[in-house]
Amino acid sequence: MKYHLNSAILNTEVQQYIHANLNSDLHALLLKKSPFEGVSMQEIAQQVKGRKVAQKKFPFLLKEGIVFPPGLNLEQASSESTAMWKAQELEGKTFADLTSGFGIDAYFLSEKFEEVVLIEQNPGLLEIVQHNWETLGRKARFINRNLQDFISENHSRFDVVYLDPARRDDALHKKFLLEDLSPNLLEIWKDLSAISNQIMVKLSPLIDISYLISVIPGITEIDIIAVRNDVKELILKAGKASEANGLRIRCVNLETHEPEFLFNYDAEKTASAAYSNVQNFLYIPNNAVLKAGAFQTLAAAFNLQKLHPNTHFYTSDEKLTTFPGRILEVEAIEAREIRSGEKFNIISKNHPLTPDQIRKKYKISDGGNRYLIFTQTQSGKIILKSK
Q: Who's near 169: CB < 8 A, 6+ residues apart?
């Protein structure tokens, strides 16, 4: 999508109108005629939507003079919380974001670098990013260039390069395989390795980790980032490893009090879990850990017993508060003890009935503070109730 920064959108009267309509219905707003010459209602609605998105996704941009791009660019941009987390261990002299987009990641990842370069092929989007960075008092070199052209002409090396390949085709259909991304990561990997010893790539959380490891050389770490148990990003890190400890997988669930879980990818292949019937506490791994496939390593790391080879629930007699996931004190119950009309949060794992089928069969509703867990141990199907 091609567009440009319309400086008239920054006029005081236009900005006041935008702020006055932050709670307006966007569809209704678009049907109105713009009260300002030189500023369309589409441009006004775009700013209203941008500020609404920023309230939850990147509140650091809720400042006067900030301009927001169209909705697709807002959707594709990282959140403030994920960008800040990715930046926590980064520092150096030179940093390059090769696919800048709306520049959220670059803003935080480059914070501790002396020289920053942002490359973006969309001139209008780059113009907006440059304006916003100047408004925020941040300096960088902004280059309107196709990534492949930049790489072929570049003679500089960077301490860190970062990219977020486009995961949609021209028809806006989502793509997940590396060869389908834009740019094609497999085609440019050697070029990336030639300009930096530390490469970071943001990928879809749906990508298969074993596939990724099989096609990309030199991976040192894969970070799986969830926000409130919704897996948002998979971050590939590659380069010269500081230690010969093998590939690390780091799992994090942001905006919760859950700790990170870090494990060696190869260790999962040799780790084994002990099995047990349900004890006093049930442990449900967060979705970042489940995405990582750390099913045996998790049991070994926390000295927990697994319920069943295909049930990724764990149990113990004593409560372990450092577990990366939900911890419930539970008791086993019989089906006849479930009373019609009661309220429960339903969890069904490795069980033939879905949560909807369970609610219908037992005439219970969703909600409340209690949990009903339908699952399976090695001894058979079981129903658990939280205390």
A: 175, 180, 182
Q: State pLDDT tens for residues 59-97.
A: 999 999 999 999 999 999 999 999 999 999 899 999 999
Apex 229 CA angle, 364 and 102, nearest 5: 135
Q: How far apart are CA 152 and CA 46, in angstroms?
A: 35
Q: Considering the entire predicted model, what is its pTM?
A: 0.91
Other C-beta atoms closer than 10 Å to the C-beta of 321 total 7
Vertex 39 angle, CA 34 and 45, to 5°: 65
Continuous segment of H or E residues that includes residue 226: strand 219-227
The enclosing H or E element of 72 equals: helix 71-76
Can you tell me the distance from the alpha carbon of 203 to that of 181, in angstroms, rounded to the nearest whole number? Answer: 10
Quote the CA–CA distance of 124 and 4 in Å, as a whole number: 4
Distance from C-alpha of 205 to C-alpha of 196, rounded to nearest angstrom: 25
